[in-house]
Specification:
Layout (H helix, E strand, L loop, with lengths): L7 H7 L22 H5 L2 H24 L1
Keywords: Membrane, Transmembrane, Transmembrane helix
Length: about 70
């Protein structure tokens, strides 16, 4: 599971310490491996697959409603 970035105050609260006023070290930029669900939905093969499955469901629903 991917770790979600936390603010320094949240990290201090998790450790039971009082938050300090000093700035936190910069967090690293997210890499390609840390991309989430929206990145996966933008992939053309996945969208084609979901479109085909959606059309099959639509055809089955219309068949049930109109022909049966």
């Amino acid at each position: 599971m991917l770790d979600t970035p936390q603010l320094p105050d949240q990290l201090d609260a998790d450790q039971g310490q009082a938050p300090t006023g000093e700035p936190a070290p910069p967090t690293p930029a997210p890499s390609d491996k840390q991309r989430g669900c929206l990145f996966a939905l933008s992939q053309p093969p996945l969208m084609i697959f979901l479109g085909v499955i959606g059309c099959l469901f639509l055809m089955a629903a219309l068949h049930d409603l109109l022909l049966l």
